[in-house]
Write the structure tokens for this entry.
Amino acid sequence: MFQKEQQAIEAKIRAYCAQNDIPLSTLKWSPIPFSGEWGISTSFFQTAADEARAGRGGKPVPQRAQEIAEQVKSQIGNVEGISHVEAVKGYLNLYFLTSEYARRVVDEILASRADFGRGPVKNERVMVEYAQPNTHHSFHIGHARTTLLGESLARIMEFAGFDTIRASYPGDIGLGVITILWAYDKFYKGQEPQGVHERGQWLLKIYAEATAMLEPKENETPEEKARREACDTERREMYRKWDAGDKYVRDLWLETREWSLEELRDILSMLDIKIDVWFYESEVDEPSKAIVEELLQRGIAEDERPQGGPVIIKIDEKLGLTKEKYRTAVILRSDGTSLYLTKDLALAKVKFKQYHVDRSIYVVDFRQNLHFQQAFKILELWGFPQAAKCYHLSYGYITLPEGAMSARRGRVVLFKDVADEAVKRVLAVESEKSGDIPEGEREKIAAQIGLGALAYSILSVDNNKDIVFDMDAALSFDGRTGPYIQNAHVRANSILKKAGAVPEKADFSDTLDPHEIQLIDLLSRFPGTVEQAANEYRPLVMAAYAHDLANVFHSFYHAVPVLQTDDPKIRDARLRLVAAAKQVIANALRLLDIQAPDVM
RNA sequence: GCCCCCGUAGCUCAAUGGACAGAGCAACUGCCUUCUAAGCAGGAGGUUGUGGGUUCGAAUCCCGCCGGGGGCGCCA
């Protein structure tokens, strides 16, 4: 936002160093960490170190850096827009003409509104693949992580300027799915609970029952063993029939799959998520087999089927690596059926060829790290240049205090249960604290806040960290939480509502309170934060920013009167600042897939 | 055996190689007749697992070790 001033200063520094034969290194600028006044800084440590290395100087580097900073400072003189310059501890600090820049920041935010912070168009298409539970059972809190991380990242990428496609790739086939289908058909056919979520939960229960039934038990009698094996045979026979396209099995499968998808769509709509493209695992099964042939013909894959083995790719060998890193991947079973990796290769080809994706992001848990490393390397060997821009956003598991969640064992925390509990808790607080919310709005706002708490608790942990799910922590409303940020938005709105209208313009020439400067400072950093979050594929960066901004706003709110100010000039400036803060909080929350209510 | 990730305050987590390692929770002290107290202000809490190295400068980069987690040709 202050490129012009920065460049003017840089030019002066360069000129000075050139004149005095100082080997200036690249100048890196960063915001000054201390609050109270507003500026940017750069340091001369690298330059001093380069000088010393060249055999000149002889003074300790920090001392020399300070010396250069002081000399540069004395040479800079007046620069338009810069109030003063200081040389401290080897740093050169530039402080802006506060009033002018305050106005500039606020004006820009209020002119751009919801677009403030949007990055320049990148001319690059990115596909984010996320929100992909296995079908045929209910959506649990672990699925919420891929869903929220993916959606937040998609929003961030889109806002940063990428042409963004949201994709989901549900696992709709596999032995687990068939197990449920088999048990449903054998024991529960014709039954069907009412309610989208009830049905999913019921299937989950059937899954746990069936798994228990099919697992070998200790001390089982010969009869039990025989019964179990008979069941297993039936199940596998059903898988074979599915594979052969048997109409009865396929119809049953499609019908029950639709139950799960209905539940998934309901949850996605609850979270305001619109997936653009659905890929189903079952649909890439056939194309993936053709790809194996192609890889064989190209000499990338090796066929061990004549020896009774599978089709493999010796990735390390192909790359000329001596250490085991990518290892050997199996891409076709010896019986000719495809694998997870095979399907991902087929899917990648569809993404590149059909959707013209330049950059592909997979939001999938960390246990599949090797899988994706292999997949990306194979794509590279296969000759796709996009392979270099494939990124596996590997996230840690959400576990329970008693251990990992397991759908097969029925040990899960259901998303719907958490969401319901969240709304219930918010309503309890609302009835106590928010008497002025109309009855009809309560439920809606409770959902916004409850889901905001849940979303923030997940997005405020860095991608690769595990989360141990604790209901009270996830639904906390105090401190570093979603509702804390939403509350800052509500308070800003409250002032604006009382004020009636936001002035068209205002000037900030009166002395600004440090709280105001800190707030303006943070507001001005929003565009850079969007860029950083997108570059690093980390919603956490935005989550941390949103909290910092809310924190500064809350402090401002307490310390700085707005409507109670007598001076109309100051009042106007502060009103515009509050409006700008409200806007940026809303923009940040939107990128986190969290609603910004006007009252709570 | 090999590969990857992690180790920061009592707990949960932050910190583009830069200034004094920051928040929240928990505990403690104040602040509601005021624009919403779902809030604010304050003090307290640290040998960044450990030993070396690179660097003017390391929580951050490199090597070793300790501890935890994940993965390693026909599961997804």
In short: Residues 102 and 520 of chain A are 6 Å apart (CA to CA). Chain A has 21 helices and 14 strands.
